[in-house]
Request: fold
Amino acid sequence: MIDSNIVADNREKILRYFHEHKRAFDVGDLYVINKFESFLRCQQGQYFLDCGVKIDRDIIHGGRFTINMQTKQSKQGQIARALSFFS
Reply:
């Protein structure tokens, strides 16, 4: 059983990490980034966020985020949830 306080703490840590990464790499307020943040805010359960960068010659692209969710949801449910992010 997952304690709701742990989930809330996890969500706050992930959002703080997300914002620190955005600030460190000067990631602007783009529609898709804002949409992704909203997605992070409404998630339930345990999940992990990996913030990364891509270096292309002398340009750093800091808006690279990967989310890993621990869920018992079916594959079809997971796909539907991912696609709802874009709607």
Observations:
- Helices lie at 4-24, 31-41, 75-84.
- The longest strand covers residues 59-69.
- The radius of gyration is 14 Å.
- The first helix runs from residue 4 to 24.
